């Protein structure tokens, strides 16, 4: 069978009526024999004659080592061509015509641009022939030549899909007879084409937040995640749901980079400040992206509008200052500063954005009803909001493979997960350690024993350990403690090499460490009879458990 990228085709593509014709061609191309490699919905940066950069996008690129490269443009539904004017039209069910771009011209431009771009790639030896064709998978009259520049061998109709291999051979043969260029491709050039169309995304992130640059891991996006970005580029608006460890934040960061690369001023919004700090570091050096918490965004807009906001970091603030007053000031500021806007918005932790705040986020766009908005959320981490919901999206995507946590951690956390189960895609690891950790003044002594073992015996770096409490720091038995035994403590937004993080579960949401120790969670694991409160407690336990990548230590549950 042919190798086809992406595999499988996401449900979001299959369920989109506008893509029915492309899905039909995809399914037939997937059945081609082994020598073929097929790339679906691929795009690359291209410069127009005026020097402006835009995206070139091909519906399909078919590669055969002995025949070359064939760029295929797909046009679904009814199609008509007017000879005297050279114009092309789509034909709807009522027989009405609607002018469309010339599909043959588009295929030719894509082919020529691809030739230029491949010549720029390191290692390209310029072997093989690069040509084009146009597919009309909903038209049956295969003997009709629709246009002078579209001879029958390079026009694919619905009956041709049945004998697709023969039709492709006919197209390759047609171009081979027109060109003196050899058809066969060198193995090195085949590799260049694959790197160009289907690169492996490698998104580097610190182990934790703002840790040493030398202590990093590579997070490789799976084919499922690759497909979410690759096959949904056309969708200006989408929601992406995923459990802990499915790569939501990494995909959100990559989506912001993508918007910025396309020349759009981009706003990245999340709820937690420690997560915003991490994202700022990850996007450092990417021009055109502004990263902020929602409340930081409100503060900045209000301050620029000259409204009486309190200084950032003020500890004593009026009741409802963050839920009501800051959003109200932002609403006023948006009216005063109509040019203070963005071309695209990415929202992470969308489950924590209250319903009344969404109009403000949309208001940061120059065109609130049209411009790109992508939101990423985890329904199992919803504990800040009070019965709120974000806008509905025509495109709703799901990431269901957890790659961050080991299988024992995933299985343990699943007992607190109230929504859909996610596929355990992480590696095997040590079992979850359930200890009897006190919730009183003896807690620090018990943790000293645990830390000594982890750091001295297991050789785990202190900065890779986080102690997370299920209560506020003011109520914690660890409040005010700067050191446990020989090990200094630090909050999550001030990571220091050699120091153990001490933080609440709430503030650590969106972050991670190799080892997480959950303490003072007794109240979260005990049913109260209040279903809403019990659900909030389960959500909080789920978040706490899934902050650990390799080892989870907690109270006996």
Please, could you describe this protein's structure?
The radius of gyration is 28 Å and the shape is elongated. 40% of the residues are buried. Helix 12 (407-413) packs antiparallel against helix 14 (531-545). It has 14 helices and 26 strands. The protein has a seven-stranded mixed β-sheet with strand order 20-26-25-21-24-23-22. Strands 1-2-3-4-8-9 form a six-stranded mixed β-sheet, sandwiched between helices. The chain has a six-stranded parallel β-sheet with strand order 14-13-15-16-12-17. It is of the alpha/beta class. It has helices at 11-14, 20-29, 103-119, 164-178, 187-197, 223-230, 248-261, 273-282, 294-304, 321-336, 358-363, 407-413, 443-457, 531-545, and strands at residues 3-5, 37-47, 53-64, 68-74, 78-82, 87-91, 97-100, 130-136, 155-157, 202-206, 216-220, 237-242, 266-270, 289-293, 344-347, 373-377, 396-399, 401-402, 423-424, 433-435, 465-469, 483-484, 487-490, 500-504, 513-519, 548-555.
Q: Work out the helicity level.
A: 25-40%
Based on helices, strands and strand pairing, what is the structural class? alpha/beta
Give the overall form.
elongated
Q: Can you list the strand order of the major beta sheet?
A: 20-26-25-21-24-23-22
Beta fraction: 15-25%
Biggest β-sheet strands, sense, barrel: 7 strands, mixed
Distance between the termini: 49 Å
Low-pLDDT runs of 5+ residues are: 204-219, 383-387
How many whole angstroms does the radius of gyration measure? 28 Å
- Summed over residues and divided by their number, the pLDDT gives a mean of 86
What's the total helix number? 14
Number of strands: 26
């Amino acid at each position: 069978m042919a190798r086809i990228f992406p595999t499988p085709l996401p449900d979001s593509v299959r369920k989109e009526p506008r893509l029915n014709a492309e899905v039909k061609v995809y399914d037939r191309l997937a059945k081609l024999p082994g020598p073929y490699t097929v790339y679906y919905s691929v795009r690359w940066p291209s410069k127009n004659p005026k020097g402006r950069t835009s995206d070139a996008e091909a519906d399909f690129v078919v590669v055969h080592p002995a025949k070359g490269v064939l760029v295929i443009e797909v046009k679904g539904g009814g199609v008509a061509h007017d000879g005297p004017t050279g114009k092309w039209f789509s034909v709807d069910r009522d027989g009405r015509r609607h002018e469309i771009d010339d599909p043959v011209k588009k295929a030719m431009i894509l082919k020529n641009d691809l030739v230029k771009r491949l010549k720029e790639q390191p290692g390209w030896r310029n072997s093989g022939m690069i040509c084009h064709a146009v597919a009309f998978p909903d038209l049956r009259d295969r003997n009709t030549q629709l246009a002078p520049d579209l001879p029958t061998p390079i026009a694919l109709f619905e009956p041709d899909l049945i004998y697709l291999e023969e039709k492709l051979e006919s197209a390759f043969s047609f171009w081979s007879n027109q060109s003196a260029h050899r058809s066969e491709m060198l193995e090195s050039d085949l590799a260049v084409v694959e790197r160009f169309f289907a690169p492996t995304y490698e998104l580097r992130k610190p182990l934790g937040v703002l840790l040493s640059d030398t202590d990093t891991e590579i997070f490789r996006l799976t084919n499922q995640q690759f497909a979410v970005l690759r096959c949904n580029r056309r969708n200006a608006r989408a929601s992406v749901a995923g459990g802990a460890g499915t790569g939501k934040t990494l995909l959100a960061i990559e989506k912001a980079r993508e918007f910025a690369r396309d020349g759009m001023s981009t706003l990245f919004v999340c709820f937690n400040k420690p997560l915003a700090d991490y994202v700022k570091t990850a996007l450092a050096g990417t021009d055109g992206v502004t990263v902020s918490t929602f409340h930081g965004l409100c503060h900045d807009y209000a301050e620029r509008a000259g409204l009486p906001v309190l200084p950032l970091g003020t500890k004593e603030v009026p009741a409802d200052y963050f839920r009501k007053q800051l959003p109200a000031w932002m609403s006023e500021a948006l009216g005063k500063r109509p040019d203070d806007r963005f071309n695209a918005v990415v929202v992470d932790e969308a489950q924590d954005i209250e319903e009344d705040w969404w109009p403000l986020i949309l208001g940061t766009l120059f065109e609130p009803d049209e411009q790109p908005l992508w939101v990423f959320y985890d329904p199992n981490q919803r504990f800040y909001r009070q019965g709120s919901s974000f806008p509905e999206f025509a495109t709703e995507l799901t990431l269901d493979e957890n790659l961050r946590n080991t299988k024992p951690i995933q299985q343990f956390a699943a007992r607190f997960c109230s929504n859909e189960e996610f596929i355990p895609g992480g590696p095997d690891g040590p079992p979850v350690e359930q200890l009897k950790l006190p919730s009183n003044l003896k807690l620090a002594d018990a943790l000293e024993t645990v830390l000594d073992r982890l750091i001295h015996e297991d050789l785990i770096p202190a900065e890779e350990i986080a102690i997370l409490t299920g209560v506020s720091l003011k109520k914690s038995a660890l409040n005010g403690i700067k050191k446990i035994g020989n090990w200094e403590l630090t909050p999550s937004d001030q990571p220091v090499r050699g120091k153990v993080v001490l933080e609440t579960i709430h503030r650590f949401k969106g972050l991670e460490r190799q080892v997480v120790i959950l303490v003072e969670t007794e109240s979260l694991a005990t049913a109260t009879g209040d279903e809403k409160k019990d659900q909030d407690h389960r959500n909080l336990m789920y978040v706490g458990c899934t902050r650990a990548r390799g080892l989870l230590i907690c109270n006996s549950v």
